[in-house]
Amino acid sequence: MIRSLPTPDALVGRIPLLWRMLAAMLVLSGLILMLVESRARILRSGVEIRLQTAPVDPRDLFRGDYVVLGYTIGRLDTTKLAGDKTFARDQWVYVRVAPGAGGFAEARGVYRAFPPVGAGETVLKARVLSTSCARDEGGIFDCAKGVSSLNVAYGLESYFVPQGTGLAIERTERARIEVVAAVDASGAAAIKRLLIDGKRVHDEPPY
Residues 117, 123, 128, 129: is their CA dihedral positive or negative? Predict the structure, then answer.
């Protein structure tokens, strides 16, 4: 008589509950540490770029003060940029930037794949939030002609600050605020510091 093999559920059921809970906690802790270290690595060794920002929202009651930031490079006019012209919502793209007026990053191209970069240029990975179709010769929107503009997010749009300072930052004039972000070789970015009138308001700790 051939005995059937125990099912995976039966095998797991033989492990004491305490050991299963400890194993789950170790796995979860490992994943959290991986995320923290990944971000810390970007802050330690990433290339710094300056971004002009526009805060939108001041407070998260569960985690203290935060600002939601919009960036001048968050809206891309593909008709004026190098790179690809056809994009879709939720697609990952790569934005090639270089210092422009005032030293702030300006978009030079947007691509579906990681592009080559020149001296002084950096590539940021972004997700497409929305697209606008190009217009034909008569000024009518024609999506078959590609996309004329993109709204993108870089993962830098929410930033937590010391409690009690979020509202003050949110009310600050847009032109006075900037962010210094660190960008790694893959295009992933993290906020390194926040400045108002060129003075540091908050430095992000490495961990």
Answer: negative
- Give 41's DSSP letter: H
- Tell me what percent of the residues of the chain surpass a pLDDT of 90: 40
Show the tokens assigned to 16. 């004491």
Which amino acid type is present at position 89? Answer: R
Q: How many CB atoms lie within 10 A of CB 179?
A: 22
Cα–Cα distance, 94 to 84 (Å, whole number): 10
Asked whether 189 and 159 are in contact (CB, 8 A), the reply is: no
- The predicted-structure confidence for 38-75, as pLDDT tens digits, reads as follows 666 788 878 999 998 866 655 554 455 778 888 999 99
Q: Record the tokens describing residue 8, joined without a space.
A: 């995976």
Q: How far apart are CA 48 and CA 122, in angstroms?
A: 9
Tokens (6 digits) for 100: 């422009």
Neighbouring-strand partners of residue 203: 193
Q: How far apart are CA 117 and CA 22, in angstroms?
A: 47
User: Across the strands, what pairs with 96?
Assistant: 109, 123
Query: What pTM, to 2 d.p., does this model score?
Result: 0.76
Please state, in angstroms and rounded to a whole number, the distance separating the CA atoms of residues 117 and 144.
Answer: 29
CA angle 166-171-172, nearest 5°? 100
What is d(CA 122, CA 106) in angstroms, rounded to the nearest whole number? 10
